[in-house]
Amino acid sequence: MADIPYVGCTHISSAITMDKEKTKMIWQSVGLPVVPYVCMKRFVMMDSVLYDAFIEETEKELGYPMFVKPCCAGSSNGAAKANNKKELDFAIMEAFQWDDKVLIEKSINAAREIECSVTGNSITGLSESETEDVIAYIPGEIAPSHDFYDFDAKYNDPDGAQLLIPAELSENDLEKIRKTAMAAYKTLDATGLARVDFFIDKDTNAVYLNEINTMPGFTPISMFPKMCDAAGLDFTNLINLLVEQALEKYKSKQKLQTSR
User: Fold this and answer.
1) What is the rounded distance in angstroms from the CA atom of residue 97 to the CA atom of residue 95?
2) Which residues 6+ apart lie within 8 Å of 163 measured at CB?
3) 168 in Cβ contact with 141 (< 8 Å)
4) 65: cis peptide before it, omega within 30°?
5) What are 65-93's pLDDT values in tens digits?
6) What is d(CA 58, CA 137) in angstroms, rounded to the nearest whole number?
7) Is 179 helix (H, G, I), strand (E, B) or coil?
8) Residue 3 region, left (φ>0) first, then alpha (ψ -120 to 50), else beta?
9) What is the pLDDT of residues 9-68, one digit of tens each?
10) 211 with 195: CB under 8 angstroms?
């Protein structure tokens, strides 16, 4: 609105990715693998008959354990793991403190949490453009010491998780993660930067998209720049790349016809 270049996704892409349900629906529409889920809206929670029927169907469809999280919250706020009906009811009530829609997901068996940094302009970027080409970097793995990578593990416990870069996967699996991350990024018309998060089932090795963060943590010790650095793009050059991409995106927008 201020008519100045900026780093990152458009307001449309960012708004969509802030809603976990809508993001999953878009990925599903193009055949990308997502964690099985259902979405409960507040009107269901407010009606005991609808609520009981919804929970019964969810138990049949997903089975325990399940993860419950607000659709439009971040940093694992309001998120909890439910191992039974009592814990599920409690987790749903807590999640509704944060949002009017709640996502309930199947718990992937002994899931490994993998992340992948992506940069580029998926709308106007050309593959021959070193600045705007969409690139996925070396995937990393989060090995939490908690039951899952919750708010406490992320921000309060200095030993809450180990960050493994590269992730301990085969070259084929690392490449699969990178390709899926780029597809997830492009499907949402992402630009600038994003961190795409995955789960891998330890038993079947199946890969599932979890979420995408269009403005990931960006301190020198955050996962996003560390994964880029592992691929040879250090912090200073990463900053330069993102600024150059923002300028290129701005130039493209300036060429468009408007009604002014």
Assistant:
1) 5
2) 140, 141, 142, 143, 223, 226
3) yes
4) yes
5) 999 999 987 667 889 999 999 999 999 99
6) 36
7) helix
8) left
9) 999 999 999 999 999 999 999 999 999 999 999 999 999 999 999 999 999 999 999 999
10) no
Pairwise CA distance, residues 166 & 170, whole Å = 10
Alpha-helix residue ranges (DSSP H) falling in the chain: 11-17, 20-29, 42-45, 48-62, 85-95, 151, 171-187, 223-230, 235-254
Instruction: Please list, in sequence order, all residues whose beta carbon lies within 8 angstroms of the beta carbon of residue 72, skipping any fewer than 6 positions away.
Output: 18, 19, 20, 99, 101
- Residues making up the chain, counted from first to last: 260
The predicted model scores a pTM of 0.87
CA distance 77 to 87: 17
> For residues 224 and 189, what is the distance between their CA atoms, to the nearest angstrom?
19
Nearest by Cα to 222 from 210, 235, 208:
235
- d(C-alpha 39, C-alpha 25), whole Å: 11
**Residue 237 in tokens:** 């050059």
Instruction: For residue 115, give both structure tokens.
Output: 């992340």
Strands 101-106 and 191-200, bridge-based pairing? unpaired
d(CA 175, CA 6): 30
Place of tokens 């490994």: 112
Quote the Cα angle for 252-257-260, to 5°: 120
Angle in degrees, CA 161, 163, 168, rounded to 5: 120
Q: What is the C-alpha to C-alpha distance for residues 218 and 235, in angstroms, rounded to an integer?
A: 10
Measured CA to CA, the distance from residue 141 to residue 144 in angstroms comes to: 10
**98 three-class SS:** coil
Alpha-carbon distance 111 to 143, whole Å? 10
